[in-house]
Amino acid sequence: DIQEYIDNCEFVIADITYDRPNCYVEIGYALAKGKHVIGFYQKEYVDEKIRKSKRESRIPFDLNTYKFQEYPRGNVEILKERLEARIGAVRTMKSSRIP
């Protein structure tokens, strides 16, 4: 079902805050299908994970070349604003492409 949803969507929204390998697979599938991925992660959770593991990156190394935006824990309004801005940017970018 997920692959069918990705095949038929305009873009994919992915939250990579928690380690969920299936999410990474779905992002990879979406990218392979040419879908734009709008990525987010919860700043406080990921910062804590970095402190515990001594990692340098907030996101997995194979995704760190893509733009994932952070949002503060518990602040749904900021997440909503950032998500709306990113969706608007994707739609603008898609509409301005020359066929």
Topology:
Elements: H1 2-8, E1 11-15, H2 21-32, E2 36-42, H3 43-53, E3 68-71, H4 76-96
Parallel strand pairs: 1-2, 2-3
Shape: globular
Widest beta sheet: strand line-up: 1-2-3
What would you report as the Rg, rounded to the nearest angstrom?
14 Å
Can you write the helix and strand succession as a string? HEHEHEH
Give the biggest beta sheet: 3 strands, parallel
How many DSSP H or I helices? 4
| N/C terminus separation | 30 Å
Structural class category? alpha/beta
The average pLDDT value, as a whole number, equals 84
Q: Uncertain runs with pLDDT below 50, 5 residues or more?
A: none
What's this, in brief?
The chain has helices at about 1-10, 20-30, 45-55, 75-95; strands at about 10-15, 35-40, 70. With about 100 residues, the protein is of the alpha/beta class.
